[in-house]
Amino acid sequence: MKSADSSGERTKSAGYPFYGWWIVLASSTMGAVSSGLTNSGFTVFFLPIRRELVISATAMSLVFSLARAQSGIAAPFVGWLADKFGTRRLVLWGGLLTGVGLILLSRGSSIWHLLLLYGVVVAVGRTASISPTLMATVNQWFVRRKALAMSILVTSFTIGGAALVPILALASAQIGWRNTILGSGMFLFLLTLPVVLVLRNRPEELGLYPDGDGPMDQTQPGQWQSDGASQVFSVRQAMATPAFWLLLIGLVLRVSAADALVIHQIPMLVWKGVSEQTAAFYLSLSFTLMVPLRLALGVSGGYLSPRLILFAAMSVGALGTLLFYFGQGWAAIIPLVVGLAMIEGVSALNWIAIGDYFGRRSFASLVGIMTVFHSTGALIAPVVSGWIFDQTQSYALVLLIVSPVLLLSGVAFAFARRPSPPVF
């Protein structure tokens, strides 16, 4: 009797459900908790730490920005390691390092401790254990269902923010920011171990194929559209295309504006007359709205043009920022919350487009390279925003700068058309 391979019949992977969905579940759990504790949720400590350590808004912004910039410095090396040796070990050591960094940070007593522990140790650990590592893992396990799988993963980062922002804000108010960060570090340290037990670098390690398909599914017309349309680009080939640079420009501008808004959202709302606890609620609401947006818009990228969705979202974000500047009360708060949700809600499409345009081969390396650039913007924008507030005691100029930056980001995305297949 002929084997399924030799007869041309399709061979489905053994087991149900496809193990790739367990990869998505484990990756999403790690992403939600780590991102929520160390990134989006960590902004609730902006004002409490600043008050206790008597730090200016500029210096405090530098702490957050340095963490993003440090991630950018480490990302290319992490991406290369992920493509070369697999992602599982990176998640292990990165997760443990992040947990230890938070534990030590809870005892910090100066701006230098914050810069070293949060800006370097936690940032490097987070880069190794979340992005680009988790995205690279999921990208290896899916091709046809890449949009859905990647959207679930990136949405989990938002779920972490939505769920943990109010918890961290309440805990900080009740037991102090130090004990809250200490508990966060211990929890993340312990979570890393079971997550790594589930993760596998790629389906081939278990004798499987991406999406749970058999070997013959790869050659069926209309099946593997993502890799089939773009072929598989090397790093050099991808960087030689206009699409790469337009996506990069759009990404840098989007992340720069988004980080300025996210890091300063609570102080911005306080500037508008909202209490600190209520401002934390609105930040959580922004992340809550991002959950269905990220999932729906990310999945829609598999059917609609990602670049046009990105353009529309950036336009809404630009308008929302302007309305926040001009408005008062609800007329200001709602546009900011919705605009930020749109700006961040489409973030999955950035990475879906990279995987869809350039294939599986160098995904982590490309993400790492792009992270260098957008982390530079993430370093500058929040610090400049903090400096402007220190000088003027107002966020008016910040908002007037962020709005057109978002619109320019959308324009860059709109022109990022799919590249032609590479020539070998």
- Number of beta strands: 0
Work out the helix count. 18
The run of helices and strands is HHHHHHHHHHHHHHHHHH
Structural class label? mainly alpha
Largest beta-sheet details = none
> Percent of residues in beta strands?
under 5%
Shape: globular
Give the rounded overall mean pLDDT: 83
The low-pLDDT segments are 1-14, 218-230
Termini separation (Å)?
A: 39 Å
Radius of gyration: 21 Å
Share of residues in helices: over 70%
Can you tell me about this structure?
The protein has 424 residues and is mostly helical. It has helices at 4-7, 19-40, 46-53, 57-85, 88-105, 111-129, 133-141, 146-175, 177-198, 225-230, 235-239, 242-271, 276-300, 306-326, 330-345, 347-358, 363-392, 396-414. Helix 4 runs antiparallel to helix 17 and helix 5 runs antiparallel to helix 9. The longest helix is centred in the middle third of the chain and has 30 residues, at 146-175. It contains 18 helices and no strands.
Summarize this, please?
With 424 residues, this protein is mostly helical. It is 77% helix and 0% strand. The chain has helices spanning 4-7, 19-40, 46-53, 57-85, 88-105, 111-129, 133-141, 146-175, 177-198, 225-230, 235-239, 242-271, 276-300, 306-326, 330-345, 347-358, 363-392, 396-414.
Entry keywords:
424 residues, mainly alpha, disordered N terminus
Topology (elements, then pairings):
Layout: H1 4-7, H2 19-40, H3 46-53, H4 57-85, H5 88-105, H6 111-129, H7 133-141, H8 146-175, H9 177-198, H10 225-230, H11 235-239, H12 242-271, H13 276-300, H14 306-326, H15 330-345, H16 347-358, H17 363-392, H18 396-414
